[in-house]
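Journal club side-thread
Mid-discussion, someone asked how the predicted structure for our own chain would compare to the paper's figures. Pasting it here so we can look after the session.
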Amino acid sequence: MEDDIEKLKRKKKFQLIWTAKFLILLASFLSMLFSIYLFYNEDTTRGIFVGLWVPSILAAGALLFAGNNEY
């Protein structure tokens, strides 16, 4: 019985971690697309500025998951 509860807890933690990772990648991908749109259609300076968000988002995600070696 306790093994089943422990497995369920690990499964929920696994799903939460991968959901967070997916959202970080989605945010960086959308930022990249928005940057490309701004660069070619609106203003190149704004496009470059928004393009700097992509590595910032990815670095923040790496910092958040730096100590998590379970999965």
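Post-session note: The longest helix spans residues 2-42.
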